[in-house]
Every structure is written in C-alpha cells, then in structure tokens.
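To whoever is on call:

I kicked off a structure prediction for a single chain this morning and the downstream step that reads the tokens threw a length-mismatch warning. I double-checked the sequence; it's 151 residues and nothing unusual in it as far as I can see. Pasting both halves so you can look.
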Amino acid sequence: MECTVSWTGAAGTRSNMGFMAETGSGHVLHMDGAPHADKPDQGGANLAPRPMEAVLAGAGACSAYDVVLVLKRGRHDVRGCSVKLSAERAATDPKVFTQIHLHFRVSGRAIPAQAVERAIALSQEKYCSASIMLGKTATISTSFELHDVAA
C-alpha cells in the first residue's frame, strides 16, 4: 500500500496547513488544519477534514465494511449500515485517541440481533485493521441498533 501526501499550503493559497493525499489506488483525499487565531500562519482554513478526523472516519468505514460483508456472507438481507463514531483524545502530545465508541445502525429484513452482534465482534476482534490498530492506545466500545424494513 502506498500514499503520497503533499502540502498544499504554499504562499498565496487559502490554507497554510492544507494537505492532499494521493492514494495508491488513485484517489485523492484533502485534509486541512483548524484555524489558529493567535498564529494564523500556523493554522489551516477549515477547508477539509483534520487528519485525525480522517483516521477516525477510516476506522468507521473499515468496520462498517466488515459488518456488511459478514452479514452478506451469512446470507442476511442487509439493506443499510451506518456507524457513528465518537472519540476522545489525550490532552497532551501526542494526542492519540484514548476512547472510541462505534454505534452501528443496521437495517434489513429479518436480521437476527445476534448476527449483527457477531458481525461487529468479528470486525473488532479479527478483521478491522484500523480499529485493532487504534485499540493499542484507545479503549474501543460498540453498540448497535437494528431496524427491520418491510419487503
């Protein structure tokens, strides 16, 4: 896996702390820092997600991907899956994540709650590289709600 991250905050740009990541799969992700009131030359312009927001979003997407895949492999009629993440970071540098909670909202037809619970557990314990990696510094917790949809 490869990725090239380039600073886009050169003189004359809208943000002093903007970055663009070009992934090995050919996609682009923009990131920016928060505005810094006391030192404008060291702050961003709030034009894109912060890098740590991108890390958190990546963990959510990685885990949701696993949940959908496990449910589909179990031949469950999954129709939707979203995950809301909330995180806390350490107060001092490096400001790693210390707590992360993932709340899944799964919808489908006649999916047993235990199947969703198992899919989430498999993601967190075996498949989701991002969550497992972040679990080295953060306590990770999960919850879910299951919504049955009509045919």
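Update from on-call: the warning came from a stale cache, not from the record. Cleared it. Sanity check on the structure: The CA atoms of residues 77 and 97 lie 34 Å apart.
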